[in-house]
Design brief:
The chain has 732 residues and is an alpha+beta fold. Among the domains are: 140 residues, Ubiquitin-like (UB roll) (Roll); 80 residues, Ubiquitin-like (UB roll) (Roll); 76 residues, Roll (Ubiquitin-like (UB roll)), CATH 3.10.20. 19% of the residues lie in helices and 39% in strands. It has a 16-stranded antiparallel beta sheet. A hairpin with a 2-residue loop joins strand 19 and strand 20. Helix 1 packs across helix 2 and helix 2 packs antiparallel against helix 3.
């Protein structure tokens, strides 16, 4: 009830302050209160024309509330007072209706409809005045669209005509809608095609159109004209010159010579001597050199040999300083336990003079742990060292030269050692991996292939208290817990693919572990431990398969408002040598990037409710995960953005575990166990990074003890249902 009263009060305040905005409007002027674009024809898509309106009303938060205008309206006319200046700076001044801008909007709308093939369109301007406010409506009357009846290509250059005829990609055909977008697309296609086939000096100005239509007809006779080459207005017309590449040379943009091997320069150069000039090859060369960490900038110039159609290429390269050293401190907060961490990183961007990136990172962390009883040490310490060597190309046999040159790839070797000392245990992790990354930027696709990823987990010490309470106790045996406090060997292979075009992002990953070792174990008769697991060097190896998929779609309403939709699904299955997934591979729910009404690892699996905070980080994990989110994002003021979100999801186990009652996935029950949360967020957007503050509330809680707890949105309790999250970057 208190929340409802607060909402009503805020709404009333917003309305009152919005009304006061007219005090800034001079006599004879009007506040532009609302702008609408409508169509007299029901089947016409109005949303395509809305960007052509030259003057829009004041912006709205979440497309509903004119909070920036209301903030500005709270200020007074006395500019000496700091509060008035602040309110005006963070607010938005009222938009004064401009008749000239309205007429320009009508002309822009008519022109846009004409370009869409509606050659006899009209726009009606309607205004409704009330007090000192005005509402503007643009009524679109597109009429009937025009279509192509006959299409003719008039190409004066016979060589180009023969080349285009052989390509057979003409897109202007009889019956197609007559639109400027379609004409421009064909002109750009021909231009790009010729630039790709040696016509270095060709541009789209050599192409123009002529159109004719009969009276009382909606059919167009169209002719595309491609003129001959003329270097200037006084020069005679000739055939368009077709150029081939002569020599390719390299020069240093710095003092001295280029600090890269010649083979590396040649490998990243897509411009090949003896081949026709190619605009794509030029751009790919720029992109390849931009990827090299050793290079600061690249400048490519072409020079025409006199009285020939040969282009010599000169590539000028400027290199970066090879050595860098960085230090990064950070603060940590794990469930209220405060700590600090720091990392020192050394990088060599050109260790073998092939733009190979070598890095070594030293990291240390300390955290004071509270609330633990029965343990001598109450602190957490972690020290790690990681070395990486990255090659800006495929380092692999049996790959064709064509594939290597076509792909934007990198190969990486990494080795790491991590030492963790907690009050309950000491843990050591050694890992090494060989990975490939490559991309196809034109198709917005990138790939990841982990050829080999080895992890060795060693537990040198476990406290007597922890062993007594959780590992050895007959009354409290926990299979999941025991498995994750044993020495373990993981040998995995993984593949991932990502598609991202800024509006839609898709990602899929699959990985398997232990299959190769499993095959060797059967052939070589590996020794088994006490629980029947095959061992390698007396260490049991993990065996599982894991799949993850997620998507994100953005629906943009205007420059200030966007709706982001996200879904994620993951499943993993232990088999063969494993009955439990390794802890690092188990899914969890809750937290800043999941169902935000719960804290990290506080939700699930299924309807399971954690009862022991000391081991719930193990118990509240699963083999299967589902996440669904809808988030409305809006610009607020200065660097601040706002968000309102609804999250849903949970985790489940595929097997039944006694220590996780109600956590197993069952097709007849899982939908009843989907948790739902809602909330709002504040983001500090600096462009290059985003600080995010999200406040979530439980709406439907599957781990309930009573009706009020189950349907929390009907009975909100901040002490029980509220969760605050701080993170860097967007949740998806």
């Amino acid at each position: 009830m208190k929340l409802i009263k607060l909402y009503i009060a805020l709404t009333a305040l917003i309305l009152l302050t919005a009304c006061s905005a007219t005090k800034f409007i001079s006599d004879g002027d009007y506040l532009l209160d609302q702008v609408e674009v409508k169509s007299a024809q029901k089947d016409f898509n109005v949303s395509l024309l809305e960007p052509y309106v030259r003057q829009k009303a004041n912006s709205k938060w979440f497309s509903l509330f004119k909070i920036p205008l209301a903030t500005y309206s709270l200020s007074g006319t006395d500019t000496i007072r700091w509060i008035n200046r602040m309110l005006k700076n963070i607010g938005e001044a009222p938009v004064v209706y401009d008749t000239v801008m309205a007429e320009r909007s009508c002309e822009a709308l008519r022109s846009a409809m004409s370009n869409m093939g509606y050659l006899h369109s009209e726009v009606e301007l309607q205004t409704r005045r009330k007090g000192k406010k005005v509402r503007v409506t643009y009524i679109l009357k597109p009429g009937e669209p025009y279509y192509l009846r006959n299409v003719r290509y008039d190409i004066a250059d016979d060589s180009i005509r023969a080349l285009l005829d052989a390509d057979r990609q003409y897109t202007l055909r009889t019956g197609a809608p007559f639109t400027v977008e379609r004409l421009d697309a064909e002109r750009n296609r021909i231009t790009n095609f010729l630039l790709e086939n040696g016509y270095y000096k060709f541009n789209k100005d050599f192409i123009h159109f002529s159109a004719d239509s009969a009276r009382d007809s909606r059919e167009i006779d169209l002719t595309l004209h491609l003129d001959k080459y003329r270097p200037n207005s006084n020069a005679p017309e000739t055939l368009h010159p077709r150029y081939t590449i002569g020599t390719v040379s390299y020069a240093s943009g710095d003092k001295g010579h280029i600090q890269l091997r010649p083979k590396v320069l040649q490998y990243n150069t897509a411009i090949i001597p003896g081949t026709p000039f190619s605009a794509n090859a030029l751009q790919k060369t720029y992109n390849n050199f931009a990827r090299l960490k050793a290079i600061r900038y690249t400048n490519i110039k072409f020079s025409e040999l006199p009285d020939t159609s040969v282009l010599d290429c000169d590539i000028q390269v400027s290199t970066n300083k090879p050595h860098t050293l960085s230090f990064q401190p950070e603060g940590t907060n794990t469930a209220g336990d405060l700590g600090a961490a720091a990392s020192l990183t050394y990088e060599n961007r050109n260790i073998f003079h092939g733009s190979e990136l070598f890095s070594i990172e030293l990291r240390g962390a300390f955290e004071a742990i509270t609330g633990l009883e029965g343990y001598q040490n109450q602190d957490y310490e972690e020290y790690s060292v990681e070395a990486k060597l990255q090659f800006p190309r495929f380092v692999a046999p049996f790959l064709s030269k064509t594939f290597r040159r076509r792909s934007t790839a990198s190969s990486e070797l990494s080795v790491a050692w991590d030492l963790q000392n907690r009050p309950e245990f000491h843990r050591r992790v050694f890992s090494t991996a060989w990975r490939y990354r490559w991309a196809e930027p034109r198709h917005h696709v990138s790939y990841r292939f982990d050829l080999l990823d080895l992890n060795y987990v060693y537990m040198p010490w476990i406290s007597a208290t922890f062993k007594h309470d959780y590992l050895d106790s007959v009354s409290n045996r926990n299979a999941i817990l025991r498995y994750n406090y044993e020495d373990l060997f993981i040998m995995k292979m993984g593949f991932g693919i990502t598609y991202n075009n800024d509006k839609l992002a898709l990602r899929a990953n699959v990985e398997t572990a232990g299959n190769l070792l499993g095959a060797f174990a059967n052939m070589a008769s590996f020794r088994k431990n006490d629980v029947g697991q095959h061992t390698l060097f007396n260490i049991a190896y993990a065996q599982y398969v894991k799949f993850d998929f997620d998507f994100t779609k953005q629906i943009r309403f205007d420059t200030h408002n966007v709706l982001a939709l996200h879904g994620a699904f993951g499943i993993a299955y232990p088999y063969g040598n494993s009955t439990v997934l390794p802890f690092e591979k188990r899914d969890f729910s809750g937290g800043a990037n999941s169902v935000r009404g719960w804290g990290v690892r506080e939700l699930g699996p299924g309807k399971f409710k954690g009862t022991d905070g000391r081991i719930d980080f193990i118990n509240q994990t699963g083999d299967m995960k589902l996440d669904l989110s809808a988030e409305y994002r809006t610009f607020l003021f200065w660097k601040f953005d706002g968000a309102a979100f609804i999250d849903a999801g949970n985790i489940w186990t595929l097997r039944s575990y006694a220590e996780q009652p109600g956590g197993q996935f069952k097709i007849s029950e899982f939908y009843k166990q989907i948790a739902v949360a809602y909330g709002v967020g504040l983001r500090l957007n600096f462009g290059y990074f985003i600080l995010r503050f999200d406040m979530g509330m439980k709406a439907i809680n599957p781990a309930y003890e009573n009706h009020k707890e189950h349907y929390a949105f009907l009975n909100p309790d901040f002490g029980r249902d509220f969760s605050f999250h701080f993170a860097v970057g967007l949740p998806f």
